[in-house]
Write a structure and sequence with these properties.
single chain; 517 residues; Fumarase C, Chain B, domain 1; Fumarase C, Chain A, domain 2; two-stranded parallel sheet; 20 helices; elongated
């Protein structure tokens, strides 16, 4: 499964990096022994309430609009199982493995706070499933982002009780019963409140937020590299990125992006060819000149979203929840609004970064604006189309991203007989952000392909060391340089993979004397 060190759950809030390590890179998990004792102690509170003749929500009552229905003791195990079966009502394509693993880990993290009242065996079963690589089949649609990501989490809980479908560590589809048996994991038999505790959280939308934050942090640095290479290839000026100019507007993200662009352009012979007092290019187009402002605004948005994510990672989201002084209380902490808002915000800035990138790509292809390069960077003008249609692809992606930037969190459809009359739609915000992140990586890849070709067409002028390293990496993964027209789709896919995997950002950082942030 993984050579990474185990992530211990229960010693405190799980970190963003730890979530990514488990979800994406299969790091194993272990459970803190002291936290398990706390889990066992809190379970005793639930056991005491279960014998109380007065109704307690989720323990001896129905759920949602049926919260006033008292359930006798001999029917409560069936109540919890029925809850999971009925709520596992997802539809549509399978959700990505890393998202399912993230939401399982985050639910496990909440279980280990001792605030949900489950038995230790419930947490142990989730940890065992993660370590065995068992991934429940979760469907695209089903969550409204309130009362938790109910359907997605229910599909995971269904697998834990040995029902429904899963994929094993090799990705093979099989029944949950088969997978648990193969991993020697006993199916859970749920007791009072445990079914509810497994599905009442923001874990799906939070998992998608954490994964997106990791990707966007890298992609914004990649956007800085791409913008700098476009400035270089279009014979733009580096003067506008000077630190004293940036300091006149002390936005933190802007300063970082400007420093990155300066690092890429440092000592570039191409830039040097038109530098100095006679350089009249002080009014480059906004897509070149204002890159630090747009990329920096995106960076600051990511920083804000990290704050929200870290607060959510430190939360114990359940309903009802056990307070630190032993009360069991209904609450509204499962409402996904705080997470949904930043998921939508990130989709907005991702679309804008992509929009600016596409404009730089287009500038390379227009002989009226590309400072002497051939139209569409074609090899034989008129016979070859060059990168003409690559720009179409980029434009189509940006148009899609603009639609994806429409907020999901402003919508609400009441459910559960009007008991749940305002919902967050945070799951949907997370789903569209994932598509937006993928699209951004492709738009940046096309800009990098274009700027690399433009730079090489400036020969004998040479690029700076960062650009040269990025171009060499692109060539090594199958993205060819200038030449006659050829089948372009595989090159776009190769460049996109190099961007989304973080290879371009890593190559740029490794080749710069100033580490790009």
């Amino acid at each position: 499964m993984s050579n990474l060190s185990p992530i211990t759950i229960g010693r405190g809030p799980v970190s963003i990096d730890s979530v990514v390590d488990v979800a994406r890179f299969n790091s194993p998990v272990s459970l803190d022994a002291a936290a398990l004792i706390t889990v066992a102690d809190s379970r005793q509170i639930i056991e005491n309430l279960a014998s109380d003749p007065h109704p307690h929500y989720g323990i001896s009552t129905g759920f949602g609009a049926l919260a006033t229905t008292y359930i006798e003791g001999d029917r409560r195990a069936q109540l919890q199982t029925s809850l999971i079966r009925s709520h596992a009502a997802g539809s549509g394509p399978e959700v990505e493995r890393e998202v399912v693993r993230a939401l399982m880990l985050l639910r496990l993290s909440t279980l280990m706070t001792g605030r949900t009242g489950v038995r230790p065996v419930v947490a142990e079963t989730y940890a065992a499933m993660l370590n065995a690589g068992i991934t429940p089949v979760v469907r695209e649609y089903g969550s409204l982002g309130c009362s938790g990501d109910l359907a997605p989490l229910s599909h995971c809980a269904l697998a834990a009780i040995g029902e429904g479908d899963v994929r094993d560590a090799s990705g093979i589809l099989m029944s949950a019963a088969q997978a648990l048996a193969a991993a020697k994991i006993a199916p859970l038999v749920l007791a009072e409140k445990e079914g509810l505790a497994l599905i009442n959280g923001t874990d799906g939308m939070l998992g998608m937020l954490v994964l997106a934050l990791t990707d966007l942090s890298m992609l914004i640095t990649t956007a800085d590299v791409a913008a700098a290479m476009s400035v270089e290839g279009l014979l733009g000026t580096d003067q506008v990125f000077a630190s004293d100019l940036q300091a006149l507007r002390p936005q933190e993200g802007q300063a970082v992006s400007a420093a990155n662009i300066r690092a890429v352009l440092a000592n570039s012979p191409i830039v040097g060819s038109h530098a100095g007092p006679d350089d009249g290019r002080v009014q480059d187009a906004y897509s070149l000149r204002c890159a630090p402002q747009v990329h920096g605004g995106a960076r600051d948005t990511v920083t804000h979203a990290v704050t929200i994510a870290e607060r959510e990672l430190a939360s114990a989201v359940d309903n009802p929840v056990l307070t630190v002084n032993g009360r069991v209380e209904s609450n509204g902490n499962f409402h996904g609004a705080p997470v949904a808002y930043v998921l939508d915000f990130l989709a907005i800035v991702a679309a804008d970064v992509a929009s600016m990138s596409e404009r730089r790509t287009d500038r390379f292809l227009d002989r009226a604006r590309n400072q002497g390069l051939p139209p569409f960077l074609a090899h034989e003008v008129g016979v070859d189309s060059g990168l003409m249609i690559a720009q179409y692809t980029s434009a189509g992606l940006v148009s899609e991203m603009k639609r994806l930037a429409t907020p999901a969190s402003v919508d609400s459809i009441p459910s559960s007989a009007m008991q749940e009359d305002h919902v967050s739609m945070g799951w949907h915000a997370g789903r569209k952000l994932r598509r937006s992140v993928d699209a951004l990586s492709r738009v940046l890849a096309i800009e990098l392909m274009t700027s690399a070709r433009g730079i090489e067409l400036r020969t004998p002028l040479a690029p700076g060391i960062v650009s040269a390293a990025v171009i060499a990496h692109l060539r090594s993964v199958g993205v060819q340089g200038p030449g006659p027209d050829r089948f372009l789709s595989p090159e776009i896919e190769a460049a996109s993979a190099a961007v989304l995997d973080g290879d371009v950002a890593r190559v740029a950082r490794a080749s710069s004397p100033i580490e790009l942030s």
